[in-house]
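TauD/TfdA family dioxygenase
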Amino acid sequence: MSSSSAASLLDVDLRPGKPPMLRVEPTGDAPGWAAERRDALRAVVADHGSVLVRGLGLRDAAEVGAVFRRLTTTGLMTEREAFAARQVYSDGVYSSSKWPPNQPMCMHHELSYTLEFPGMMLFACLGAASAGGATGVADSPTVLNALPPALVQRFEQEGWLLTRTYNEDIGASYADAFGTDDRAAVESYCRANAIEFEWQPDGELRTRQRRSAVVRHPVTGQRCWFNQIAFLNEWTMDPEVHEYLVDVYGADGLPFNTRFGNGDPISQDVVELLTGIYDAHTAREPWQAGDLMLVDNIRSAHSREAFEGSREVLVGMADAVRLGDVAPTGGVTAG
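Predicted C-alpha cells:
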C-alpha cells in the first residue's frame, strides 16, 4: 500500500497553522491501537511531516513506552551527546530536555550534530502546562526555500560548526552527554564520531564538530534544512544569561555555540533571520494530557514554547539514520 493510500485510512484534520491532527476515542489499549495503525500513522507523517493524535488518553510512562515501541520500525535509540539533561523513564523513553520554563527552545532537528540521529521523534503529553509549552513544527524544505540562496550555498559548501564546553553547571556534563565519566571512553567516542576534543586545565571537556547543514530526505530525496544552527547559537540565549555566561566562562567557553563551517562567527542578524523564517512557518497546537505526536525529524524541525505551570512531555527517538547516507554530495559530515 502506498503512503498516500495508507494515510487515507485515517481521518486527519488539516488546518493552516496547525499540525495535522487525528482525533480518536480512548480504547483502553493504547499500545494495541498504535500497533494496528502504525503503518497508517507513519504514512501521515510521510505525507505531512508530523501528526498529533488527540483523545488516546495516555496515562503513564509505562504505557507511553509501550506505544512508542509499537510505532518504530528499528527500535528506540539511546541518546548520546545530549545538550541538556533528561530523566530516563525506561530504555529509550526520556523526559523532555531540562530547560528553563521561561525560555523557549528554538526550532531544531534532534541530534542533527551527531553522525547518527533519529529519523522519527515521538512525543507524549502526560501533563499539559497551564499556559504555553506547545511543541511547534516547521517544514524543513519550506524553510530551506525561504532562506536567502547565498546563505544556503555557503552553509552547503562549508557546513556548520558546533563548539561545546562541558561543565557541571550549565547544560549536560560530559558524563551525561556521553554516558560515562571515563575519559578514555569519551575520547574513543569522539574519535569514532569525528569530534575534535581538548581537555581543559580544570578537567572539563571542549569539543568541535563540523556537520552538513542541508541533507536529502532518505525516502523522498527532498533537500531539507537540517541542523541546530539557530537553537545552539549564542544569539538565541536570553541576553542576561548570555552576558552572565560570557562573564563567567569567557566568549570561547560557552556551553555551546555555532559557527559557519570554516570557523567564522555567525552574526546576530543571520540568527534572527533564521528564527524569523522558522516563526513564519511554524505550526502549533497546545498540548492536552494524553496526546501523542509523531514527527519526521528530517522533514520537520520542532520547538518548545516557554510555559507556565508544570509540564510533562515524554520523548522517544527512533529509526536511526546515518548522516553519511543523507548528506548531499559536497556536504560536510566531519571536522
